[in-house]
Amino acid sequence: MASSTPARTGAGIVLALLAAGQFVMTLDSSVMNVSMAVVASDLGTTISGIQTAITLYTLVMATMMITGGKIGSIIGRRRAFGIGLVIYAAGSLTTALAPNLQVLLLGWSVLEGLGASLIMPAIVALVAANFPPERRAAAYGLIAAAGAMAVAAGPLIGGAVTTFFSWRYVFAGEVVIVLVILAFLPKMADVAPIPAKIDYVGSLLSIIGLGSFVYGVLRSSEWGWVIPKPGAPSILGASPTIWLMVLGLLVVFVFMRWESHLVKIGKEPLLRPAMLRNRGLVGGLTMFFSQYMIQAGVFFAVPLFLSVVLQLDALQTGLRILPLSFALLLSAAGVPKVWPQANPRRVVRLGLLSMLAGILVLVGGMDPGANAAVVAVPMLLIGLGLGALSSQLGSVTVSSVPDSEAAEVGGLQNTGTNLGASLGTALVGSVLLSTLTASVVSGVLANPDVPAEVKQKAATPIVGGVPFISDAQLSEALTAAGVTGTEAQAILDVNSAARLDALQEAFGVTALLTVGALFFTGRIPRRAPGSGEGDDGGDDDDDDETVGEVDDSPAGSVDESRPV
After folding, report:
1. CA distance 506 to 427
2. Average pLDDT over residues 23-28
3. Which residue has the higher pLDDT, 528 or 346?
4. Which bin fits 172, alpha (ψ -120 to 50), beta or left (φ > 0)?
5. Of 45, 110, 118, 250, which one has the greatest count of Cβ atoms within 10 A?
6. 328 CB contacts (<8 Å, ≥6 apart)?
7. How many whole angstroms separate alpha carbon 351 and alpha carbon 287?
8. Domain locations in the chain?
């Protein structure tokens, strides 16, 4: 179990700085998503170019997190945090001044991605170094809330700054925030560095394995999961997506075998395989993965409903999502304060149920009369649920290992969240577009007002999928094609109904993912970290352990002799 760390003077300042770091790390992507068209025009590139930058940014972070966590252990968490901040600030400044796509890719995708891979694992470890176990739940909850708030507030901030000033000011502002954090860096406690060497072979294998898998997932909407989309490349008749995912998993398997080999011969691995047999750690990592997969699905579909179906602008969309941020902050800070010795497993389950209730309200609310008010209650319920999970998971994962391993845990944790977010967005997006295509085709064929030539085209399988567009965009396209009057209105009606069907399916899949996550809560401990009691495995809820092999060893115990 993690060693107790004395509370420090200025802990509030330390928490604010770490939360600010987490906020900045998460803000970029959500801002870029709403500013893509303006950024593309400004840099003389295309939307596809900006999407490539977003993909590369995610890829660099996802592949480098484990290595970044190990580097933090070797050079010291605070130093890794500081170096990461300097690299990140250099990337933000480069991005703010970028004259073209190539410079944007260097500044945002590469430098900021590398900086984040040092910063985010270090944040996890610095919380462990600056707060005793009994206060970590609240600290981790607030830091996770800061990240989730950045996702929710990103469209609002990005929309406002891009509309009234320039998207470049967002990145310039990040440089200022980083400089403030660096000024207060000496106030943070550190954990002594652990002399060791980087496992370069393991690092390369982890980068190739995770990179292949994540890249395949990120390209699934463009290439298709198994059957290649029209115009997409193919390998032996199948989409590159499935080949990249299979390759990635195989390389990760080789990586784990290599790490086991290093342990066996007495050398320092990049990741100790025994950590993945730690019950509390695996339970926390599984739930982090699930949380971010569900969260990504919600944040993918809700803005589409608000911005495309209801045609709200970025500011209005951001304001409608903002209640989620307040509920998340309230829950993340309130649960540890009001219920400091709460049963983590129970809090996580209640959080998932709250999220499920909110998502189900969205499923039922996708009808022709739906307006922006339909998201108000779901945003509150989902926010409360996310906050409940945030208040427990960080403390559960770090407290299940010694403080000396907190940075490695941070690397694993952020790898899990990146994988979850990538997979959640890709999965929900695929379901949404495939349902939209099927609904449009069936709606067109069944509507007597649609011209015969349009029905004939619709009868041909649309493998590439129908784009998710607003009534205004479709109306312009129909006018340009010479379709007007009753015929145009019939197609608009079909598209409107199909969009709601697609969103309903997308939210339905997200609800299933949430229910599925409940089956994996059995490894979350029942005793709060720092309560002085271990998870004895003897009382309530023991009949619903995670499906599969049950590890009866206490949380935090590992057995290096067992092979992986």
Report:
1. 9
2. 81
3. 346
4. alpha
5. 118
6. 145, 148, 149, 152, 383, 384, 386, 387, 390
7. 11
8. 12-193, 297-528
End-to-end alpha carbon distance in the chain? 22
pTM of the model: 0.80
> What does the pLDDT look like over 282-308, one tens digit per residue?
888 999 899 988 988 888 888 888 877
Q: At what angle do helices 406-446 and 376-399 cross, to 10 degrees?
A: 150
Answer whether residue 546 shows pLDDT above 60.
Answer: no
Tens of pLDDT, residue by residue over 63-101, are 888 888 888 888 888 888 899 999 999 999 999 898 988
Per-residue pLDDT tens for 481-537? 666 677 777 777 777 888 888 888 889 999 999 999 999 998 888 887 655 554 444
Number of neighbouring beta carbons within 10 Å of residue 345? 23
As a dihedral over the C-alpha atoms of residue 373, residue 377, residue 382, residue 383, rounded to 10 degrees, the angle is 90
Instruction: Read off φ and ψ for residue 238, nearest 5 degrees.
Output: -115, 160
CA-to-CA distance for 213 and 207, rounded, in angstroms?
A: 10
Instruction: Please tell me the distance from the alpha carbon of residue 338 to that of residue 304, in angstroms, as a whole number.
Output: 36
Q: What share of the chain is helix, strand, coil (3-state, %, to 5)?
A: 75, 0, 25
Token digits for 187?
């106030």
Query: Do 168 and 334 touch, CB atoms closer than 8 A?
Result: no
Tokens of 192: 């002594």
Q: Decide whether 12-193 matches 297-528 in CATH topology.
A: yes
For residue 347, give the nearest of 401, 395, 278, 275 by alpha carbon: 395
We find that the CATH architecture of domain 297-528 is Up-down Bundle (1.20)
HSE-CB at 213 with a 13 A cutoff on CA atoms is 21
Distance CA 20, CA 147 (A): 9
Burial class (CB in 10 A: 0-12, 13-18, 19+), 437: buried
CATH 1.20.1250.20 fits 12-193, yes or no: yes
Q: State the DSSP H helix or E strand holding residue 392, giving kind and residue range, or none if neither.
A: helix 376-399
pLDDT greater than 50 at residue 248: yes
Percentage of the residues of the chain whose pLDDT score is greater than 90: 17
